[in-house]
Specification:
single chain; 614 residues; mainly beta; ten-stranded mixed β-sheet; six-stranded antiparallel β-sheet; 37% strand; elongated
């Protein structure tokens, strides 16, 4: 969006009905998203807002929401406007739009939703000076469930320095964690999500442009070229009309993911532009994390109303729809490097450019090559203009600087952690039987392996319930690496937390432990299935900070079975016996159970004609 009235638009080349994810992940190469918000995935980090020049309006939190998971963040979103008449003007509002989870972003079958947020925004509707945010939207989840949602909060901002006719812009969010968690569907949250019923102002345009010419009157082919589409009277800022939505899903896994990540969501809304006397830059500092080896880091954002024709090189390389400008940048930099990459994001100085759809930027960048192992902080700059105020001309010509007005929403970052790691195939909790009868003794074993990059010191083992439900601990049976661990207060040390000391990273040579203990199934267990799992708590030192973490093992299950004897067989050794003689009876008992059977007593009634001898 140019921060001023826009009398002349572009050519109609927009195709809206293309999957945003198809563009985002390289299947098409046409345009960028025009709503910018950044999602950074990092390790154990905090985001700190740094002072910045010329952040014109809005607010941003001083701290992000954070999650530590064996999972990822997934970003979806789409535009809610079209521009089929002229690609510069979003003149039609869609009733709804959709986006789908792509194959390489698929949530695994053991995914557990940790957080989910729905965002939507646009140019506010209503009379000049009385515009309002639309705080409601419709949402259809991947399982087909349809509902209406009301925002937890909305921001409504005006671009400072412009007249009231420029209008206002809104940005709403709703926490849908509980809602989404209740609707996994048959495909674990994967599928298509649809958002609609958002009321926003669209461009009022006309083909009666009264002799207006194209903005570029420098290039020969553009001189006196007539404008065929322009803003209608009463809507001089019609180019700044937009509407869109985005969904962020953050999930953990029970067993399938073995890489631990820190995820940070920084949710705010900023209007950014370079002015004649101040730079249009907004700076974020991310700190207090430790990146693993090899480093993995991803950045995402959601930004509104970016324009493909505003920015460089478009404005310095021809085209009649914008006045030439070699320094009209809009960009995002990470640790000093301007980001590019992905479908439609080839120009570092025109990054907020409607990708994947008109009026919204939902860009994702792999920034792994811009960090290194043990890094503890990173810096991000969202910029409008080139940051050089000397080339902004004085007077009316430079009143709005040389940048595009950026409406910047959330930022997300995720990174892999430099940490111990017990989430691997070797770490498991097992029991020696799948069925057991009352009185039977079970042996449980916990195998641990730390295949992470740091020592876990100390590591403590507990069970979710000790002893496992329906059993009694067999005293003196707790072993670590085959050696007996003394009981504490008549019970295993596991009951309060068995200290396993320093379980090193593989390089330390002591990265594994084996723990075992025995229990006896109660005569009246009170449960049909004995279910149990281990809980590991551990501490480790990063490059700067000390961290505490925990992870659960898999669960074991033992079915409680009743004792079962085959029909007893009683056989006399002789068919006849004389008075005073003796005979022998033989009783045969057969165990018909799958497990051991304990016979406590046997009773036989002798015939009244005989006396028991022995």
């Amino acid at each position: 969006m140019r921060a001023g009235p826009t009398p002349a638009p572009h050519k109609a080349t927009h195709t809206l009905h293309v999957s945003p994810a198809a563009l985002r992940h390289g299947r098409l190469q046409s345009w960028r998203r025009a709503v910018s918000s950044i999602v950074l995935l990092l390790v154990s980090s905090t985001l700190v807002a740094a002072p910045a020049l010329a952040v014109l309006a809005g607010k941003y939190p001083t701290k992000p929401k954070t999650w530590r998971v064996y999972g990822k963040a997934v970003q979806l979103g789409a535009s809610l406007v079209t521009n089929f008449t002229d690609y510069r003007y979003n003149d039609k509002l869609l009733s709804q739009s959709s986006d789908s989870v792509q194959n390489f972003e698929t949530l695994p079958s053991d995914a557990v939703i940790k957080a989910a947020y729905l965002f939507w925004g646009g140019s506010a509707n209503g009379p000049v000076g009385g515009e309002s945010a639309d705080s409601t939207a419709s949402l259809r989840l991947a399982d087909g469930f349809l509902t209406n949602v009301t925002a937890d909060s909305c921001d409504l901002e005006s671009p400072p320095g412009l007249t009231a006719q420029a209008g206002k812009h809104f940005y709403c969010r709703r926490d849908i964690t509980s809602l989404l968690s209740a609707h996994p569907g048959t495909n674990t949250y994967n599928g298509t999500y649809t958002v609609g019923a958002v009321n926003a102002k669209v461009a009022s345009i006309t083909s009666n442009c009264g002799g207006l010419t194209k903005p570029n009157q420098v290039d020969a082919q553009c001189v006196n070229k007539p404008e065929t589409t322009c803003c209608a009277p009463g809507d001089a800022y019609c180019q700044a009309r937009h509407a869109s939505w985005s969904l962020v899903i953050i999930y953990d896994t029970k067993f399938s993911e073995t890489t631990q990540r820190d995820i940070f969501l920084w949710d705010g809304f900023k209007l950014i532009d370079e002015r004649r006397t101040s730079k249009g830059e907004f700076s974020l500092k991310i700190e207090n994390f430790d990146i693993g080896d090899p480093p993995q880091a991803e950045l995402m954002y959601y930004s509104l109303e970016g324009d493909s024709h505003l920015g460089e090189p478009y404005q310095s390389s021809g085209g009649c729809d914008s006045a030439p400008c070699g320094t009209c940048y809009d960009y995002i930099s990470f640790n000093g490097t301007k980001l590019t990459g992905g479908a439609g994001n080839n120009d570092a100085n025109n990054i907020f450019n409607s990708t994947p759809e008109t009026g919204v930027d939902l860009d994702q960048f792999n920034v792994s090559n811009l960090v290194k192992p043990k890094d503890t902080q990173a810096n991000i700059i969202i910029g409008s203009g080139d940051g050089n105020l000397a080339n902004n001309p004085p007077g009316a010509a430079g009143a709005h600087g040389y940048g595009e007005l950026i409406l910047y929403g959330y930022t997300v970052m995720q990174v892999n952690r430099l940490a111990p790691n017990y989430k691997n195939p070797i770490t498991k909790y097992t029991v020696n039987a799948s069925e057991a009868a009352p009185g039977e003794v079970l042996t449980y074993t916990v195998d641990l392996l730390n295949n992470g990059q740091l020592d876990a010191s100390p590591t403590t083992l507990k069970l979710n319930v000790f002893p496992p439900p329906g059993t009694d601990y067999v005293p003196g049976t707790t072993l670590v690496e085959g050696k007996t661990v003394p009981d504490v207060g008549g019970s295993s040390a596991i009951s309060s937390g068995l200290n396993l000391g320093n379980i090193t990273a593989p390089a330390g040579g002591k990265s594994s432990r084996k723990v075992s203990f025995k229990v006896k199934v109660k005569s009246n267990p009170g449960v049909a299935t004995i279910t149990s799992n281990g809980v590991l708590s551990y501490q480790y030192k990063g490059t700067v900070s000390t961290f505490n973490d925990s992870v659960e093992t898999n669960a074991t299950q033992v079915k409680v079975t009743a004792p079962k004897l085959a029909t007893p067989q009683l056989i006399a050794t002789t068919k006849q016996v004389a008075p005073g003689g003796t005979t022998t009876w033989q009783l045969t008992l057969e165990n018909a159970s799958a497990n051991n059977l304990v016979v406590d007593s046997v009773r036989m009634d002798t015939p009244k004609e005989a006396n028991f001898v022995s």
